[in-house]
Amino acid sequence: MRSLFSPGRTPVFIIESRHGMHYGIPPHGDLHAGIKVAKHHHRDEAVEPDAYDRTVSADDEALIRAALAEHIPAANGRLLAAKTCLYNHDTGQRFPSSIGCPAPPTSLSLRPASGHGFKFAPVIGEIVADLAITGANAP
């Protein structure tokens, strides 16, 4: 099954189902050997980052495996690694919170709302570059 999820073959994906919203990131070079799958708003918890127990339990894993079993059973194989990933977001669920230029454009403002911004860095960089150079973003 490893060839199904090889670099260049599997896209980044989002599954929204009765199990919640899950996302996946394919293998990329030497970064990780398997496909990464996670549940967005894993347990709908608000936590204090410095006091949060980052242990991944069997119940945590089960929340992800339920969606895999139903939607991508070939990815529901042996667990290679499990880690927690905490991020912040604004209450409006917008991502990013704002990217824009005042009129006339004399400065550029960028305020991402999520710690997952690194995943979207290429597209955010393109938007910011367009805004900085032309004052508008290409459609």
Tell me what you see in this structure.
With 139 residues, this protein is of the alpha+beta class. Helices cover 20% and strands 15% of the residues. A 3-stranded antiparallel β-sheet has the order 1-2-3, with helices on one face. A hairpin with an 8-residue loop joins strand 4 and strand 5 (109-111). The mean pLDDT is 76.
Helix count? Answer: 2
Kindly state the number of beta strands. Answer: 5
Give the CA-CA distance, first to last residue.
38 Å
Give the SSE order as H and E letters: EEEHEEH
> Mean pLDDT, rounded to whole units?
76
Describe the biggest sheet?
3 strands, antiparallel
* SS-derived structural category: alpha+beta
The radius of gyration computed from the alpha-carbon positions, rounded to a whole number of angstroms, is: 18 Å
Helical proportion, percent range:
10-25%
Strand order of the largest sheet: 1-2-3
Percent of sequence in beta strands: 15-25%
Shape: globular
Query: Could you list the spans in which at least 5 consecutive residues all have pLDDT below 50?
Result: none
